[in-house]
Specification:
homotrimer, 296 residues, alpha/beta, 5-stranded parallel β-sheet, 4-stranded parallel β-sheet, 40% helix, 15% strand
Chain lengths: 296, 296, 296
Amino acid sequence: MEGIDASTITRILDKAEEYVEKNRQVDKKSKSLTGRTLINLFFENSTRTRTSFELAGKRLGMDVINISAQASSISKGETLLDTAMTLNAMQADAIVVRHPSAGAVQLIAEKTNAHIINAGDGAHEHPTQALLDALTIRRKLGKLEGLKVAICGDIANSRVARSNIYLLKTMGAEVTLVAPPTLMPTGVAGFGVKHTIDMRAGLKDVDVVMMLRIQHERMAGRGIASVRDYFHSYGLDRTKLSFAKDNALIMHPGPMNRGVEIDTDVADDISRSAILDQVEMGVAARQAVLELLLGS
Amino acid sequence: MEGIDASTITRILDKAEEYVEKNRQVDKKSKSLTGRTLINLFFENSTRTRTSFELAGKRLGMDVINISAQASSISKGETLLDTAMTLNAMQADAIVVRHPSAGAVQLIAEKTNAHIINAGDGAHEHPTQALLDALTIRRKLGKLEGLKVAICGDIANSRVARSNIYLLKTMGAEVTLVAPPTLMPTGVAGFGVKHTIDMRAGLKDVDVVMMLRIQHERMAGRGIASVRDYFHSYGLDRTKLSFAKDNALIMHPGPMNRGVEIDTDVADDISRSAILDQVEMGVAARQAVLELLLGS
Amino acid sequence: MEGIDASTITRILDKAEEYVEKNRQVDKKSKSLTGRTLINLFFENSTRTRTSFELAGKRLGMDVINISAQASSISKGETLLDTAMTLNAMQADAIVVRHPSAGAVQLIAEKTNAHIINAGDGAHEHPTQALLDALTIRRKLGKLEGLKVAICGDIANSRVARSNIYLLKTMGAEVTLVAPPTLMPTGVAGFGVKHTIDMRAGLKDVDVVMMLRIQHERMAGRGIASVRDYFHSYGLDRTKLSFAKDNALIMHPGPMNRGVEIDTDVADDISRSAILDQVEMGVAARQAVLELLLGS
């Protein structure tokens, strides 16, 4: 999302709206990308994102191939670029890549002529997540500009946070980052957003609360004594939520750790939680990206 | 199958007949469910059942997505219901679920609006197996009503047995369960079927012998000394089979443990064994279920 | 490839040419095999070959199912033939099989009526690799007859070498095998080809240098002291390549071990290396095989 301008983002979101409607029909299939090849190349597991892209491709008429790292030639010692160039040579039109290393997707993009779509690279970016989040907010609240959005949790390690910061700033929203000191990125002062270690202060009067998934294994040695302590200070519950605006949206990219970063009561509040809407918007947003990259 | 009435079963079997014929053509594809989404969500491995549903969906024109537990978000701590509701939010029209726990599929069905199809839940039910078995019998013997059917093996742990008992009783067949005492379910007296620990007595004059797969690991501590002992008492061989009617059908849901619950000579008897017919009928039966649930 | 005559090979290569062109179009899809079922049954991992067959099938309009050994009933003790006959009973039109044991694919072919395609069986054959190699050479050099081809590396364990030897001899090429004594097959004298342990001598004036992948784990105890020693004697680098003809093609079936059997500088030489062409030709060659086996 870094460097993507507002008109491009708006064009993607507008296109995605068409697919939201289409996906609610009995026949969800369009033929705009019939005969094109989409390869999902995942070096990290992700049911949600892989399935979302697979559905997006298939509903556009594409042939979709899934490759997971475990099954790949990587385990035979092949380099990342050789794997990518091999798939490219099979005339893939688009390759969706998830990789644990920041920059890996960019590297592939430079060496292939297929359209390369970043489905998450290390702690760098996860652009389609930011797009689907923006689509969800825009549909629920009617706009992005001028909204106050809090992003809460493990900001330092989160590609979701990073992509959302780029997009939300570009679209004129005001972002506040909330995290314990050990999970706040170094250099946050240069991000052009507010930040605080006090969740109540961070949620004050916001329109949107975006929670992030916390990785249990990252807690150790970060000054977070326990899950219980984390939930007490940074888990979204009714009390902390009460500092936000009355109708503030609750968002989470999933999969959720209930009782860790978010309380079940809040996650399942059908009048406030947009978590399942995000999932629905994910397929449509990815269809829009594919269509705009590959369509005529 | 519990609670499914005879007319519904007959309607499914009649519809399945159409697909048996269609699947024998060069072009096996119909378009009745084009543009619908089928998700195979398997928390236990099963090549046979997963492939059967995948083919059923694809041959009806559906977009089919496979998700296996290993690759799923479950391994990231997400709850079963969150996984299911996520897939539901992607506008899955049908989700086929296999799960090691009895009742898990019902739980999902209550929380989603997709059609949920049980592909086996713990030791509870495996309804499409019963349907394909019924289709196989009806095609081979012309009817279900009045037939004598023996179900033999690990009844206590078998969802296949349970679903077949419900269906066969509903359709007017007479069922006899055959198992060693340790593998006979408690409460069998209330099942409304005959039962015996003597396989020869149980096979006396039956029209159909349904063998069940025995799990090696379940033998230990159940009073079964060895595979050899089990085969001696409960493995289907020529001698025991001779107690059944001359043309009795031999059935097995697969995968077979040859030399454990069934003798190779009997399994491969092309004049009697319906084991590969069962596999063929499986695809057609699942197409019928999908078509009747989702079709116009 | 053993026993396949020159006219059959030529017919496959000619048909493949059509798909090379088709795959370079925006819409790569043809409908010649619509409604047919292709099953990829892989008992060894192979991203490259599995993906190539999957794309070949899908681009011809087939429904394609992937089965990997880990997920298969094999792990439940089912025999290889029972697995194959089960898939056959589901009306598979073609089953693509990769198996670690030589002869396994033939065994399956004898017991099923689906078309069985060998995607590599042990150290025996990998016929579609030989076909794609031939297609690559014929397109680059205009012919096969009369060419001098060196095949270098672990000949003893290579199904790729074996299939290429059969095909190249049949088509009138002159083959030289290059390998260290411990990786030269016993009985090489009866192969009807030249052989040498001196790579420079083996590459003298050849038109094509086919490198083979070396399995690290096979080096130990074979008199090969280290990767460095192997590369020194048998790795393809500029110096050794200089013994071949000026425009000699560089080939490798992939995945490559850069710095082991091939130098990066040589592998990436766009004026000489046909390695990515081989990948591209792989899809087309497999489409040709499917079309000729299953088409009307």
